[in-house]
Design goal:
The complex is a heterodimer. Chain A is 82% helix and 0% strand. Chain A is mainly alpha-helical. In chain A, helix 1 crosses helix 2 and helix 8 packs parallel to helix 13. The longest helix of chain A has 29 residues. By secondary structure, chain B is mostly helical. Chain B is flat and about 40 Å long.
């Protein structure tokens, strides 16, 4: 741990700063954490002394995902009701397939990067990007770009959704489920929902949590897909296990424990706070992976892919909900 | 035989370094869960 301490201390300092800024300015704390990392790497500059510790950010990401399992229960899925559940499966499935198609076929992005954007659009923004990234062994810069792209849309939807909801005169139920279905990160979904009305906030939260519960399934599918495609000649069960991200086992174990009611509400809140802090630590580190020179090379394509995917998902889900409710 | 007070620490360190990062994350996550559940340690936000 010795050589890593200074870098880990920088991550911790950045996390606390991100938390403080998000509380005082009202901006998404993960976005602030990435921005701090970005500024550290591109403007301030990072000394070699800090690099070993800053590189530990992947460990904090994986640990955060493991702990996230405690917030996902099978009951949450059932609470949303049968119809909403079917709509969620349909919209998430469409979003993933559509964004994969856009990324690979239309824009020619790499398979893994496309999968990160698809998971981010289909499930729940940064959490899904992080979970799938671990499962498919995506590169750090790909995670950072995908996460930053998704978080950019968090900021945009936070402003646009309430305006569109009022303009279209949507009912509380439709608006809440629509926000929960199509927006990215949980925080903005809850905020937008409750800003509309109490009922909209409740529906937005339930729908979003149900969508979050699909992370495990999507991660499993992606992990299996990339394990098979990356090792065509290695098809044994042992190889499959060797390639399989082990933190998913930890995540699923906590889902089972949470569903069995092992954790009290207070314990669950503490675990949720723990993974929020771990994500903050991790995203300060991830922000340092975004290099301005690389961004120029990447161009606007990832943002365009997510924009088109998001518009399609948002329109489709709103049309579905208007017909159903 | 001489007793080396550093050996348990070194043994833990060696085992830790040998662990794959994914398993390290599971270990750290488990430790946090155990601390929260057994000792009711509140983690603020």
């Amino acid at each position: 741990m010795g050589p890593r301490l200074p870098g880990v201390a920088v991550l911790c300092g950045g996390a606390v700063l991100a938390w403080g800024l998000s509380v005082s300015v009202g901006v998404n704390h993960l976005l602030v954490a990435i921005a701090i990392g970005f500024v550290l790497a591109n403007i301030v500059g990072i000394s070699d002394w800090f690099r070993p510790g800053i590189r530990t950010h992947k460990l904090w990401l994986a640990t955060g995902i493991v702990l996230m399992g405690a917030s996902v229960t099978l009951e949450t899925v059932l609470e949303a009701g049968g119809v909403v559940l079917v709509v969620i499966f349909a919209v998430v499935g469409f979003a993933i397939v559509f964004v994969e198609f856009l990324s690979r076929v239309v824009f020619g992005l790499t398979d893994r990067f496309g999968s990160l954007l698809a998971a981010g659009t289909g499930i729940c923004g940064v959490s899904a990007v992080v979970a799938v990234a671990g499962a498919i062994r995506a590169r750090e810069d790909q995670i950072a770009y995908a996460a930053a792209t998704v978080l950019l849309f968090d900021a945009i939807t936070l402003v646009v959704y309430p305006i569109v909801g009022d303009l279209l005169g949507l009912s509380d139920t439709v608006f809440g489920i629509w926000a929960g279905l199509s927006m990215f990160s949980t925080g903005p979904v809850v905020a937008v929902g409750f800003a509309h009305s109490e009922l909209a906030g409740q529906w937005a939260t339930i729908t979003k949590l149900t969508r979050n519960a699909l992370i495990g399934l999507v991660v499993l599918v992606y992990a299996s897909y990339y394990t098979q495609t990356g090792a065509a000649s290695r098809s044994s069960a042992r190889m499959l296990w060797e390639e399989f991200p082990k933190f998913v086992a930890g995540f699923l174990a906590l889902v089972v424990l949470a569903s069995a009611g092992v954790f009290s509400p207070a314990q669950q809140a503490s675990i949720e706070n723990a993974y929020n802090w771990l994500f903050l630590l991790a995203f300060v580190g991830l922000g340092t992976e975004i290099q301005l020179t690389d961004l120029r090379n990447t161009g606007l394509e990832p943002a365009l892919v997510v924009l088109i995917g998001f518009l399609a998902v948002s329109t489709l889900s709103l049309a579905l909900l208007t017909v159903l409710f | 035989m001489e007793f080396d007070p550093a050996w348990p620490v070194e043994s833990v360190r060696t085992r830790w370094r040998a662990l794959e990062r994914d398993w390290q994350s599971v270990v750290i996550g488990s430790v946090i869960v155990v601390l929260v559940v057994l000792f009711e340690i509140p983690i603020p936000w």
